[in-house]
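::Encoded backbone::
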Amino acid sequence: MASSFCQIMETNIQDLPETVLLQIFHELANKRIYNLFRLRLVCKSWYELTKDSSLWKFVCFPGCDRLDVDVLSRVLSWCPGAREVDISSCPLVNDQCIEVIATRCSHLRTLNVRNCYISDVGLRALATNCFGIKKLVLSYHDEVSITSEVLSELIRQCPQFEHLEILHKDEEDDAYECSFLISTDLIAALVNCPNLKSFHCVNATLLDDTVFDNCRNGHCLNMSITSLSLKSCNDLTNSTLNAFTYNCNALKELDVSFCAGVNDAGIATVSEFCPNLEHLNVRSCQCITDIAIEKIAQNCRGLRYLCVAGCELPRPTGNITDVAIQKVAAYCLKLSHLDVKWCQGVTDIGIGTIASNCPSLAHLNVCGCLAISDLSMLVVATCCTDLECLEIAECLRITHSSLNRIAQNCVKLKYIDMQVCSYLQDLDFRKDNSVQLAMSHIDLSYCTKINDDCVKHIVTECTQLEFISLAGCHRVTDLGLKYIACNCPLLQYVDLSFRGSQSSAHITDDSVMLLAKKCLLLTYLDLIGCWGVTSDCVALISQNCLYLKQFNVSLLFEVSQGGESVSHVEGLVKKTRSAFSVKRVARSLRNGKSAQSFVLHISSLNL
Protein backbone atom coordinates (compact mmCIF):
# COMPACT_ATOMS: atom_id res chain seq x y z
CA MET A 1 0.00 0.00 0.00
CA ALA A 2 2.81 2.36 0.94
CA SER A 3 4.76 1.54 -2.24
CA SER A 4 1.74 2.25 -4.49
CA PHE A 5 1.25 5.58 -2.71
CA CYS A 6 4.88 6.46 -3.37
CA GLN A 7 4.45 5.58 -7.05
CA ILE A 8 1.47 7.95 -7.27
CA MET A 9 3.45 10.71 -5.58
CA GLU A 10 6.33 10.18 -8.04
CA THR A 11 4.09 10.58 -11.11
CA ASN A 12 5.30 13.50 -13.20
CA ILE A 13 2.82 15.97 -14.68
CA GLN A 14 4.53 15.38 -18.02
CA ASP A 15 3.20 11.81 -17.94
CA LEU A 16 -0.39 13.04 -18.19
CA PRO A 17 -2.12 12.58 -21.57
CA GLU A 18 -2.34 15.68 -23.74
CA THR A 19 -6.13 15.70 -23.42
CA VAL A 20 -5.83 16.00 -19.64
CA LEU A 21 -3.19 18.72 -19.91
CA LEU A 22 -5.43 20.62 -22.29
CA GLN A 23 -8.26 20.50 -19.74
CA ILE A 24 -5.89 21.93 -17.12
CA PHE A 25 -4.77 24.63 -19.55
CA HIS A 26 -8.42 25.45 -20.25
CA GLU A 27 -9.06 26.06 -16.54
CA LEU A 28 -5.98 28.27 -16.20
CA ALA A 29 -6.85 30.23 -19.35
CA ASN A 30 -10.39 30.85 -18.09
CA LYS A 31 -8.96 32.51 -14.98
CA ARG A 32 -6.36 34.62 -16.84
CA ILE A 33 -5.69 34.29 -20.56
CA TYR A 34 -2.13 35.45 -19.92
CA ASN A 35 -1.46 32.18 -18.11
CA LEU A 36 -1.14 30.50 -21.51
CA PHE A 37 1.91 32.62 -22.25
CA ARG A 38 3.49 31.57 -18.98
CA LEU A 39 2.73 27.90 -19.63
CA ARG A 40 4.41 27.97 -23.03
CA LEU A 41 7.71 28.91 -21.36
CA VAL A 42 7.84 25.71 -19.29
CA CYS A 43 9.04 23.30 -21.99
CA LYS A 44 8.89 22.62 -25.74
CA SER A 45 5.96 20.20 -25.52
CA TRP A 46 3.88 22.71 -23.57
CA TYR A 47 4.92 25.42 -26.01
CA GLU A 48 3.35 23.43 -28.82
CA LEU A 49 0.35 22.39 -26.73
CA THR A 50 -0.58 26.01 -25.91
CA LYS A 51 -1.06 26.60 -29.64
CA ASP A 52 -4.01 24.19 -29.71
CA SER A 53 -6.91 26.00 -31.36
CA SER A 54 -9.37 24.76 -28.72
CA LEU A 55 -7.69 27.08 -26.20
CA TRP A 56 -8.19 30.13 -28.39
CA LYS A 57 -11.85 30.14 -29.37
CA PHE A 58 -12.14 33.21 -27.18
CA VAL A 59 -9.28 35.69 -27.71
CA CYS A 60 -9.50 37.94 -24.66
CA PHE A 61 -6.86 40.61 -23.92
CA PRO A 62 -8.70 43.64 -22.46
CA GLY A 63 -6.45 46.45 -21.26
CA CYS A 64 -3.28 44.96 -22.72
CA ASP A 65 -0.82 47.84 -23.13
CA ARG A 66 1.55 45.94 -25.42
CA LEU A 67 -0.90 44.27 -27.79
CA ASP A 68 -0.16 45.53 -31.30
CA VAL A 69 -0.67 44.20 -34.82
CA ASP A 70 2.42 41.94 -34.70
CA VAL A 71 1.48 40.30 -31.40
CA LEU A 72 -2.14 39.93 -32.47
CA SER A 73 -1.07 38.31 -35.75
CA ARG A 74 0.97 35.69 -33.87
CA VAL A 75 -1.91 34.94 -31.50
CA LEU A 76 -4.45 34.65 -34.31
CA SER A 77 -2.15 32.32 -36.26
CA TRP A 78 -2.97 29.71 -33.58
CA CYS A 79 -6.72 30.23 -33.70
CA PRO A 80 -8.11 30.85 -37.18
CA GLY A 81 -11.51 29.71 -35.92
CA ALA A 82 -11.80 32.29 -33.12
CA ARG A 83 -15.41 33.39 -32.70
CA GLU A 84 -15.06 35.97 -29.93
CA VAL A 85 -12.36 38.65 -29.71
CA ASP A 86 -12.10 41.16 -26.84
CA ILE A 87 -9.22 43.63 -27.22
CA SER A 88 -10.95 46.56 -25.51
CA SER A 89 -8.87 49.37 -23.97
CA CYS A 90 -5.69 48.29 -25.79
CA PRO A 91 -3.99 51.59 -26.77
CA LEU A 92 -2.01 50.11 -29.68
CA VAL A 93 -5.00 48.51 -31.41
CA ASN A 94 -5.81 50.25 -34.70
CA ASP A 95 -7.32 49.58 -38.12
CA GLN A 96 -4.46 47.25 -39.03
CA CYS A 97 -5.41 45.02 -36.11
CA ILE A 98 -9.04 44.97 -37.23
CA GLU A 99 -7.97 44.04 -40.76
CA VAL A 100 -5.92 41.14 -39.36
CA ILE A 101 -8.93 39.95 -37.33
CA ALA A 102 -11.24 40.26 -40.33
CA THR A 103 -8.82 38.26 -42.50
CA ARG A 104 -7.94 35.53 -39.98
CA CYS A 105 -11.32 35.10 -38.23
CA SER A 106 -13.91 34.68 -40.96
CA HIS A 107 -16.28 32.97 -38.48
CA LEU A 108 -16.14 35.89 -36.02
CA ARG A 109 -19.34 36.36 -33.99
CA THR A 110 -18.38 38.93 -31.33
CA LEU A 111 -15.85 41.79 -31.42
CA ASN A 112 -15.18 44.23 -28.58
CA VAL A 113 -12.87 47.12 -29.48
CA ARG A 114 -14.12 49.60 -26.91
CA ASN A 115 -11.64 52.42 -26.22
CA CYS A 116 -9.52 51.50 -29.25
CA TYR A 117 -8.59 53.93 -32.02
CA ILE A 118 -10.30 52.45 -35.05
CA SER A 119 -12.04 54.09 -37.99
CA ASP A 120 -14.21 53.34 -41.01
CA VAL A 121 -11.24 51.57 -42.62
CA GLY A 122 -11.35 48.76 -40.05
CA LEU A 123 -15.14 48.54 -40.16
CA ARG A 124 -15.10 48.12 -43.94
CA ALA A 125 -12.72 45.17 -43.53
CA LEU A 126 -15.23 43.56 -41.13
CA ALA A 127 -18.10 44.17 -43.53
CA THR A 128 -16.12 42.54 -46.35
CA ASN A 129 -14.95 39.42 -44.50
CA CYS A 130 -17.06 38.70 -41.40
CA PHE A 131 -20.60 38.20 -42.65
CA GLY A 132 -21.59 36.18 -39.57
CA ILE A 133 -20.77 38.82 -36.97
CA LYS A 134 -23.55 39.23 -34.39
CA LYS A 135 -22.19 41.63 -31.79
CA LEU A 136 -19.97 44.71 -32.16
CA VAL A 137 -18.83 47.04 -29.37
CA LEU A 138 -16.72 50.03 -30.41
CA SER A 139 -15.82 53.58 -29.38
CA TYR A 140 -15.57 56.77 -31.41
CA HIS A 141 -12.88 59.32 -30.54
CA ASP A 142 -13.92 62.17 -32.84
CA GLU A 143 -16.81 63.07 -35.10
CA VAL A 144 -15.35 61.67 -38.34
CA SER A 145 -13.41 58.50 -37.42
CA ILE A 146 -16.50 56.26 -37.41
CA THR A 147 -19.52 57.22 -39.47
CA SER A 148 -23.12 56.07 -39.67
CA GLU A 149 -22.73 55.32 -43.38
CA VAL A 150 -20.11 52.60 -42.88
CA LEU A 151 -21.95 51.12 -39.90
CA SER A 152 -25.08 50.98 -42.07
CA GLU A 153 -23.11 49.09 -44.71
CA LEU A 154 -21.81 46.64 -42.09
CA ILE A 155 -25.30 45.95 -40.73
CA ARG A 156 -26.69 45.32 -44.21
CA GLN A 157 -23.82 42.96 -45.06
CA CYS A 158 -24.32 40.91 -41.88
CA PRO A 159 -27.86 39.46 -41.78
CA GLN A 160 -27.29 37.79 -38.38
CA PHE A 161 -26.39 41.08 -36.69
CA GLU A 162 -27.98 41.35 -33.22
CA HIS A 163 -26.13 43.85 -31.02
CA LEU A 164 -24.51 47.23 -31.78
CA GLU A 165 -22.90 49.30 -29.03
CA ILE A 166 -21.37 52.69 -29.92
CA LEU A 167 -19.56 54.27 -26.96
CA HIS A 168 -17.49 57.37 -26.40
CA LYS A 169 -13.82 56.72 -25.70
CA ASP A 170 -14.03 58.54 -22.34
CA GLU A 171 -17.43 57.25 -21.27
CA GLU A 172 -16.41 56.87 -17.62
CA ASP A 173 -15.85 60.62 -17.34
CA ASP A 174 -19.40 61.57 -18.41
CA ALA A 175 -17.72 64.58 -20.08
CA TYR A 176 -17.84 64.13 -23.82
CA GLU A 177 -15.71 66.10 -26.26
CA CYS A 178 -17.61 65.00 -29.36
CA SER A 179 -20.78 63.19 -30.38
CA PHE A 180 -21.79 60.44 -32.77
CA LEU A 181 -24.10 61.40 -35.62
CA ILE A 182 -26.98 58.97 -36.13
CA SER A 183 -28.05 59.41 -39.73
CA THR A 184 -31.30 58.52 -41.43
CA ASP A 185 -29.41 55.77 -43.27
CA LEU A 186 -28.30 54.11 -40.02
CA ILE A 187 -31.83 54.23 -38.61
CA ALA A 188 -33.11 52.63 -41.82
CA ALA A 189 -30.48 49.88 -41.58
CA LEU A 190 -31.50 49.17 -37.99
CA VAL A 191 -35.18 49.15 -38.91
CA ASN A 192 -34.57 46.57 -41.62
CA CYS A 193 -32.16 44.37 -39.62
CA PRO A 194 -34.22 41.18 -39.10
CA ASN A 195 -32.38 39.87 -36.03
CA LEU A 196 -31.61 43.13 -34.21
CA LYS A 197 -31.96 42.68 -30.45
CA SER A 198 -29.96 45.53 -28.97
CA PHE A 199 -28.87 49.06 -29.96
CA HIS A 200 -26.81 51.22 -27.59
CA CYS A 201 -25.34 54.63 -28.48
CA VAL A 202 -23.76 57.15 -26.10
CA ASN A 203 -23.90 60.92 -26.65
CA ALA A 204 -25.59 60.68 -30.03
CA THR A 205 -26.75 63.49 -32.27
CA LEU A 206 -29.81 62.85 -34.43
CA LEU A 207 -29.47 64.21 -37.98
CA ASP A 208 -33.23 64.55 -38.45
CA ASP A 209 -36.41 62.68 -37.61
CA THR A 210 -37.93 62.20 -41.07
CA VAL A 211 -37.35 58.47 -40.83
CA PHE A 212 -39.77 58.36 -37.91
CA ASP A 213 -42.62 59.18 -40.25
CA ASN A 214 -42.11 55.69 -41.67
CA CYS A 215 -42.09 54.26 -38.15
CA ARG A 216 -45.49 55.73 -37.47
CA ASN A 217 -46.80 54.20 -40.70
CA GLY A 218 -45.93 50.73 -39.51
CA HIS A 219 -42.28 50.45 -40.66
CA CYS A 220 -40.86 50.78 -37.19
CA LEU A 221 -37.84 49.37 -35.44
CA ASN A 222 -37.85 45.61 -35.56
CA MET A 223 -40.50 44.15 -33.29
CA SER A 224 -37.94 41.83 -31.68
CA ILE A 225 -35.65 44.56 -30.29
CA THR A 226 -35.24 44.01 -26.54
CA SER A 227 -32.65 46.59 -25.48
CA LEU A 228 -32.35 50.29 -26.39
CA SER A 229 -29.88 52.75 -24.85
CA LEU A 230 -29.52 56.39 -25.92
CA LYS A 231 -27.58 57.68 -22.93
CA SER A 232 -26.67 61.40 -23.05
CA CYS A 233 -28.49 61.94 -26.35
CA ASN A 234 -29.21 65.66 -26.06
CA ASP A 235 -31.36 65.67 -29.20
CA LEU A 236 -33.70 63.01 -27.85
CA THR A 237 -37.23 64.30 -27.26
CA ASN A 238 -40.52 62.67 -26.37
CA SER A 239 -41.40 62.51 -30.06
CA THR A 240 -38.22 60.74 -31.16
CA LEU A 241 -38.22 58.40 -28.16
CA ASN A 242 -41.79 57.34 -28.83
CA ALA A 243 -40.96 56.79 -32.50
CA PHE A 244 -38.07 54.53 -31.47
CA THR A 245 -40.28 52.48 -29.18
CA TYR A 246 -43.51 52.49 -31.22
CA ASN A 247 -44.86 48.93 -31.49
CA CYS A 248 -41.75 47.49 -29.78
CA ASN A 249 -43.76 45.28 -27.46
CA ALA A 250 -40.72 43.07 -26.83
CA LEU A 251 -38.58 45.93 -25.45
CA LYS A 252 -37.24 44.96 -22.03
CA GLU A 253 -34.40 47.44 -21.44
CA LEU A 254 -34.48 51.22 -21.92
CA ASP A 255 -31.70 53.64 -20.93
CA VAL A 256 -32.32 57.35 -21.52
CA SER A 257 -30.11 58.59 -18.68
CA PHE A 258 -28.79 62.16 -18.98
CA CYS A 259 -31.37 62.95 -21.71
CA ALA A 260 -32.65 66.40 -20.76
CA GLY A 261 -35.27 66.46 -23.52
CA VAL A 262 -37.30 63.54 -22.16
CA ASN A 263 -40.04 64.27 -19.64
CA ASP A 264 -42.98 62.59 -17.91
CA ALA A 265 -45.13 62.49 -21.05
CA GLY A 266 -42.48 60.62 -23.03
CA ILE A 267 -41.89 57.98 -20.36
CA ALA A 268 -45.63 57.57 -19.77
CA THR A 269 -46.11 56.82 -23.48
CA VAL A 270 -43.24 54.32 -23.39
CA SER A 271 -45.00 52.51 -20.56
CA GLU A 272 -48.01 52.04 -22.85
CA PHE A 273 -45.98 50.97 -25.91
CA CYS A 274 -43.69 48.61 -23.95
CA PRO A 275 -45.63 46.81 -21.21
CA ASN A 276 -42.91 44.13 -20.97
CA LEU A 277 -40.27 46.63 -19.84
CA GLU A 278 -38.02 45.17 -17.13
CA HIS A 279 -35.13 47.65 -17.04
CA LEU A 280 -35.48 51.46 -16.95
CA ASN A 281 -32.68 53.99 -16.43
CA VAL A 282 -33.68 57.67 -16.26
CA ARG A 283 -30.73 58.87 -14.20
CA SER A 284 -30.21 62.65 -14.25
CA CYS A 285 -33.32 63.27 -16.36
CA GLN A 286 -34.30 66.53 -14.72
CA CYS A 287 -37.82 66.56 -16.18
CA ILE A 288 -38.78 63.10 -14.89
CA THR A 289 -40.95 63.18 -11.75
CA ASP A 290 -43.17 60.87 -9.73
CA ILE A 291 -45.83 61.09 -12.47
CA ALA A 292 -43.75 59.12 -15.00
CA ILE A 293 -42.55 56.53 -12.49
CA GLU A 294 -46.10 55.88 -11.29
CA LYS A 295 -47.15 55.21 -14.90
CA ILE A 296 -44.24 52.81 -15.33
CA ALA A 297 -45.23 50.98 -12.15
CA GLN A 298 -48.84 50.62 -13.25
CA ASN A 299 -48.16 49.50 -16.84
CA CYS A 300 -44.84 47.59 -16.55
CA ARG A 301 -45.44 45.27 -13.64
CA GLY A 302 -42.56 42.98 -14.55
CA LEU A 303 -40.06 45.77 -13.82
CA ARG A 304 -36.86 44.43 -12.26
CA TYR A 305 -34.40 47.33 -12.61
CA LEU A 306 -35.16 50.98 -11.87
CA CYS A 307 -32.63 53.83 -11.75
CA VAL A 308 -34.02 57.27 -10.94
CA ALA A 309 -30.82 58.75 -9.49
CA GLY A 310 -30.72 62.52 -9.46
CA CYS A 311 -28.23 65.01 -10.87
CA GLU A 312 -24.89 65.57 -9.15
CA LEU A 313 -24.39 69.14 -10.40
CA PRO A 314 -24.89 71.98 -9.65
CA ARG A 315 -25.96 70.27 -6.44
CA PRO A 316 -26.96 66.67 -5.73
CA THR A 317 -30.72 66.44 -6.14
CA GLY A 318 -33.43 64.18 -7.57
CA ASN A 319 -37.13 64.60 -8.25
CA ILE A 320 -38.44 61.21 -7.12
CA THR A 321 -40.15 60.86 -3.74
CA ASP A 322 -41.75 58.21 -1.56
CA VAL A 323 -45.00 58.63 -3.52
CA ALA A 324 -43.56 57.00 -6.65
CA ILE A 325 -41.42 54.50 -4.74
CA GLN A 326 -44.45 53.21 -2.83
CA LYS A 327 -46.31 52.80 -6.13
CA VAL A 328 -43.38 50.77 -7.49
CA ALA A 329 -43.43 48.63 -4.36
CA ALA A 330 -47.16 48.01 -4.79
CA TYR A 331 -47.07 46.91 -8.44
CA CYS A 332 -43.51 45.75 -9.27
CA LEU A 333 -43.06 42.83 -6.91
CA LYS A 334 -40.17 41.35 -8.95
CA LEU A 335 -37.97 44.43 -8.51
CA SER A 336 -34.35 43.41 -7.89
CA HIS A 337 -32.42 46.66 -8.50
CA LEU A 338 -33.35 50.13 -7.18
CA ASP A 339 -31.17 53.25 -7.47
CA VAL A 340 -32.53 56.43 -5.86
CA LYS A 341 -29.17 58.15 -5.34
CA TRP A 342 -29.50 61.84 -4.34
CA CYS A 343 -33.31 61.68 -4.23
CA GLN A 344 -33.89 63.62 -1.02
CA GLY A 345 -37.63 62.94 -1.20
CA VAL A 346 -37.05 59.24 -0.60
CA THR A 347 -37.18 58.35 3.09
CA ASP A 348 -37.42 55.33 5.36
CA ILE A 349 -41.09 55.03 4.40
CA GLY A 350 -40.37 54.41 0.72
CA ILE A 351 -37.38 52.11 1.22
CA GLY A 352 -39.12 50.18 3.99
CA THR A 353 -42.10 49.57 1.68
CA ILE A 354 -39.80 48.38 -1.13
CA ALA A 355 -38.00 46.01 1.23
CA SER A 356 -41.28 44.58 2.54
CA ASN A 357 -42.90 44.07 -0.88
CA CYS A 358 -39.88 43.15 -3.04
CA PRO A 359 -38.11 40.19 -1.40
CA SER A 360 -35.98 39.63 -4.53
CA LEU A 361 -34.20 42.97 -4.07
CA ALA A 362 -30.51 42.36 -4.79
CA HIS A 363 -29.14 45.87 -5.39
CA LEU A 364 -30.07 48.99 -3.41
CA ASN A 365 -28.48 52.43 -3.85
CA VAL A 366 -29.60 55.19 -1.47
CA CYS A 367 -26.37 57.23 -1.55
CA GLY A 368 -26.93 60.83 -0.49
CA CYS A 369 -30.50 60.21 0.72
CA LEU A 370 -30.10 62.02 4.02
CA ALA A 371 -33.47 60.90 5.41
CA ILE A 372 -32.55 57.20 5.29
CA SER A 373 -31.75 55.73 8.70
CA ASP A 374 -31.48 52.44 10.58
CA LEU A 375 -35.28 52.09 10.51
CA SER A 376 -35.46 51.13 6.83
CA MET A 377 -32.12 49.30 6.88
CA LEU A 378 -33.43 46.95 9.57
CA VAL A 379 -36.41 46.15 7.33
CA VAL A 380 -33.95 45.44 4.50
CA ALA A 381 -32.00 43.13 6.80
CA THR A 382 -35.16 41.22 7.71
CA CYS A 383 -36.89 40.98 4.31
CA CYS A 384 -34.18 41.15 1.62
CA THR A 385 -32.09 38.07 2.26
CA ASP A 386 -31.04 37.96 -1.42
CA LEU A 387 -29.34 41.37 -1.18
CA GLU A 388 -25.98 41.38 -3.00
CA CYS A 389 -25.10 45.08 -3.28
CA LEU A 390 -25.78 47.94 -0.86
CA GLU A 391 -24.69 51.54 -1.48
CA ILE A 392 -25.28 53.97 1.39
CA ALA A 393 -22.54 56.61 0.92
CA GLU A 394 -23.25 59.87 2.80
CA CYS A 395 -26.24 58.38 4.65
CA LEU A 396 -25.20 59.88 7.96
CA ARG A 397 -28.12 58.43 9.98
CA ILE A 398 -27.19 54.80 9.30
CA THR A 399 -25.17 53.20 12.10
CA HIS A 400 -23.44 49.93 12.86
CA SER A 401 -26.53 48.38 14.46
CA SER A 402 -28.41 47.99 11.16
CA LEU A 403 -25.31 47.20 9.09
CA ASN A 404 -24.24 44.41 11.41
CA ARG A 405 -27.75 42.97 11.13
CA ILE A 406 -27.59 43.17 7.32
CA ALA A 407 -24.24 41.36 7.31
CA GLN A 408 -25.69 38.63 9.53
CA ASN A 409 -28.91 38.08 7.58
CA CYS A 410 -27.95 38.92 3.97
CA VAL A 411 -25.33 36.23 3.49
CA LYS A 412 -25.22 36.81 -0.30
CA LEU A 413 -24.01 40.40 0.18
CA LYS A 414 -20.89 40.95 -1.93
CA TYR A 415 -20.63 44.72 -2.35
CA ILE A 416 -21.11 47.48 0.22
CA ASP A 417 -20.28 51.17 -0.20
CA MET A 418 -20.27 53.15 3.05
CA GLN A 419 -18.22 56.20 2.04
CA VAL A 420 -18.45 59.27 4.27
CA CYS A 421 -20.72 57.57 6.81
CA SER A 422 -18.92 59.58 9.45
CA TYR A 423 -20.66 58.11 12.48
CA LEU A 424 -20.01 54.47 11.65
CA GLN A 425 -18.09 52.61 14.31
CA ASP A 426 -18.09 49.22 16.01
CA LEU A 427 -18.69 47.35 12.76
CA ASP A 428 -18.00 43.70 13.46
CA PHE A 429 -20.16 41.76 10.97
CA ARG A 430 -20.73 39.02 13.55
CA LYS A 431 -22.41 36.00 12.03
CA ASP A 432 -23.23 32.37 12.50
CA ASN A 433 -19.90 30.55 12.30
CA SER A 434 -21.45 27.97 9.98
CA VAL A 435 -22.01 30.64 7.28
CA GLN A 436 -19.20 32.12 5.17
CA LEU A 437 -19.74 35.75 4.14
CA ALA A 438 -19.44 36.32 0.38
CA MET A 439 -18.29 39.95 0.69
CA SER A 440 -15.79 40.92 -2.02
CA HIS A 441 -16.03 44.76 -2.07
CA ILE A 442 -16.03 47.10 0.95
CA ASP A 443 -15.61 50.87 0.69
CA LEU A 444 -15.15 52.68 4.01
CA SER A 445 -13.51 55.81 2.60
CA TYR A 446 -13.63 58.74 5.05
CA CYS A 447 -15.48 56.79 7.71
CA THR A 448 -13.29 58.54 10.22
CA LYS A 449 -14.27 56.49 13.28
CA ILE A 450 -13.14 53.17 11.77
CA ASN A 451 -10.12 51.81 13.65
CA ASP A 452 -7.85 48.75 13.70
CA ASP A 453 -10.22 46.72 15.86
CA CYS A 454 -13.07 47.31 13.42
CA VAL A 455 -10.83 46.34 10.48
CA LYS A 456 -9.87 43.15 12.31
CA HIS A 457 -13.51 42.08 12.76
CA ILE A 458 -14.37 42.85 9.13
CA VAL A 459 -11.48 41.06 7.43
CA THR A 460 -11.74 38.07 9.75
CA GLU A 461 -15.32 37.54 8.59
CA CYS A 462 -14.76 38.61 4.94
CA THR A 463 -11.81 36.56 3.74
CA GLN A 464 -12.93 36.69 0.08
CA LEU A 465 -12.36 40.45 -0.21
CA GLU A 466 -11.02 41.69 -3.55
CA PHE A 467 -11.56 45.43 -2.93
CA ILE A 468 -11.11 47.48 0.22
CA SER A 469 -10.86 51.25 0.56
CA LEU A 470 -9.93 52.93 3.82
CA ALA A 471 -8.99 56.28 2.27
CA GLY A 472 -8.97 59.04 4.86
CA CYS A 473 -9.42 56.62 7.78
CA HIS A 474 -6.75 58.16 10.01
CA ARG A 475 -7.33 55.73 12.90
CA VAL A 476 -6.18 52.75 10.84
CA THR A 477 -2.52 51.91 11.46
CA ASP A 478 0.01 49.25 10.54
CA LEU A 479 -1.87 46.81 12.76
CA GLY A 480 -5.06 47.15 10.71
CA LEU A 481 -3.20 46.72 7.42
CA LYS A 482 -1.51 43.58 8.78
CA TYR A 483 -4.92 42.11 9.59
CA ILE A 484 -5.94 42.82 5.98
CA ALA A 485 -2.79 41.24 4.54
CA CYS A 486 -3.06 38.08 6.63
CA ASN A 487 -6.77 37.44 6.05
CA CYS A 488 -7.48 38.59 2.47
CA PRO A 489 -5.14 36.86 -0.02
CA LEU A 490 -7.46 37.59 -2.98
CA LEU A 491 -7.22 41.37 -2.70
CA GLN A 492 -6.83 43.24 -5.99
CA TYR A 493 -7.62 46.83 -4.97
CA VAL A 494 -6.38 48.57 -1.81
CA ASP A 495 -6.75 52.29 -1.07
CA LEU A 496 -5.21 53.74 2.09
CA SER A 497 -4.63 57.22 0.68
CA PHE A 498 -4.96 60.65 2.25
CA ARG A 499 -5.70 63.64 0.01
CA GLY A 500 -5.34 67.38 0.49
CA SER A 501 -3.90 68.39 3.84
CA GLN A 502 -4.56 64.96 5.35
CA SER A 503 -1.74 62.49 5.89
CA SER A 504 -0.76 59.53 8.02
CA ALA A 505 2.46 58.42 9.64
CA HIS A 506 0.84 55.24 10.96
CA ILE A 507 1.20 53.23 7.72
CA THR A 508 4.82 52.17 7.23
CA ASP A 509 6.99 49.67 5.38
CA ASP A 510 6.31 47.15 8.12
CA SER A 511 2.70 46.51 7.07
CA VAL A 512 2.95 47.40 3.37
CA MET A 513 5.74 44.88 2.81
CA LEU A 514 3.61 42.21 4.46
CA LEU A 515 0.79 43.18 2.08
CA ALA A 516 3.19 42.77 -0.86
CA LYS A 517 4.14 39.28 0.31
CA LYS A 518 0.62 38.04 1.09
CA CYS A 519 -1.59 39.71 -1.55
CA LEU A 520 0.06 38.75 -4.82
CA LEU A 521 -3.00 39.51 -7.00
CA LEU A 522 -2.95 43.26 -6.37
CA THR A 523 -3.71 45.38 -9.45
CA TYR A 524 -4.19 48.76 -7.71
CA LEU A 525 -2.54 50.17 -4.58
CA ASP A 526 -2.90 53.77 -3.35
CA LEU A 527 -0.62 54.95 -0.53
CA ILE A 528 -0.54 58.69 -1.25
CA GLY A 529 -0.21 60.61 2.01
CA CYS A 530 1.30 57.62 3.86
CA TRP A 531 4.66 59.19 4.66
CA GLY A 532 6.03 56.17 6.52
CA VAL A 533 6.57 54.28 3.25
CA THR A 534 10.11 54.19 1.80
CA SER A 535 11.84 53.29 -1.47
CA ASP A 536 12.51 49.74 -0.25
CA CYS A 537 8.78 49.16 -0.11
CA VAL A 538 8.28 50.42 -3.67
CA ALA A 539 10.92 48.00 -4.95
CA LEU A 540 9.39 45.01 -3.15
CA ILE A 541 5.86 45.76 -4.35
CA SER A 542 6.93 46.04 -8.01
CA GLN A 543 8.81 42.76 -7.63
CA ASN A 544 6.14 40.71 -5.82
CA CYS A 545 2.83 42.04 -7.16
CA LEU A 546 3.17 40.90 -10.76
CA TYR A 547 -0.36 41.93 -11.77
CA LEU A 548 -0.04 45.47 -10.41
CA LYS A 549 -1.12 48.11 -12.94
CA GLN A 550 -1.29 51.30 -10.87
CA PHE A 551 0.62 52.23 -7.74
CA ASN A 552 0.23 55.65 -6.10
CA VAL A 553 2.81 56.45 -3.44
CA SER A 554 4.30 59.31 -1.43
CA LEU A 555 8.02 59.40 -0.58
CA LEU A 556 10.35 61.67 1.37
CA PHE A 557 13.71 62.79 -0.07
CA GLU A 558 16.53 64.95 1.13
CA VAL A 559 16.09 68.42 -0.33
CA SER A 560 19.32 68.03 -2.29
CA GLN A 561 17.98 64.86 -3.95
CA GLY A 562 14.48 66.16 -4.72
CA GLY A 563 15.26 67.05 -8.32
CA GLU A 564 16.23 63.47 -9.15
CA SER A 565 13.27 61.82 -7.45
CA VAL A 566 11.50 60.68 -10.64
CA SER A 567 14.67 59.00 -11.90
CA HIS A 568 15.08 57.36 -8.50
CA VAL A 569 11.57 55.87 -8.57
CA GLU A 570 12.05 54.74 -12.18
CA GLY A 571 15.21 52.94 -11.11
CA LEU A 572 13.31 51.04 -8.40
CA VAL A 573 10.71 49.74 -10.85
CA LYS A 574 13.07 49.17 -13.77
CA LYS A 575 14.67 46.22 -11.98
CA THR A 576 11.54 44.09 -12.38
CA ARG A 577 9.36 45.74 -15.07
CA SER A 578 10.17 46.54 -18.67
CA ALA A 579 7.21 48.84 -19.37
CA PHE A 580 6.02 51.54 -16.95
CA SER A 581 5.60 55.28 -16.48
CA VAL A 582 6.19 57.50 -13.45
CA LYS A 583 4.43 60.84 -13.00
CA ARG A 584 5.01 63.22 -10.10
CA VAL A 585 1.64 64.67 -9.04
CA ALA A 586 2.54 66.69 -5.92
CA ARG A 587 5.59 68.27 -4.32
CA SER A 588 6.05 70.14 -1.03
CA LEU A 589 8.26 70.45 2.03
CA ARG A 590 7.62 68.27 5.07
CA ASN A 591 9.74 68.39 8.22
CA GLY A 592 12.69 69.76 6.30
CA LYS A 593 12.47 67.15 3.53
CA SER A 594 11.14 67.14 0.00
CA ALA A 595 7.75 65.40 0.11
CA GLN A 596 6.65 64.09 -3.27
CA SER A 597 3.77 61.96 -4.54
CA PHE A 598 3.87 59.77 -7.63
CA VAL A 599 1.48 57.83 -9.85
CA LEU A 600 3.07 54.73 -11.38
CA HIS A 601 1.39 52.99 -14.31
CA ILE A 602 2.95 49.54 -14.64
CA SER A 603 2.42 46.89 -17.27
CA SER A 604 1.21 43.70 -15.67
CA LEU A 605 2.26 40.34 -17.06
CA ASN A 606 1.10 40.69 -20.62
CA LEU A 607 2.66 39.13 -23.71
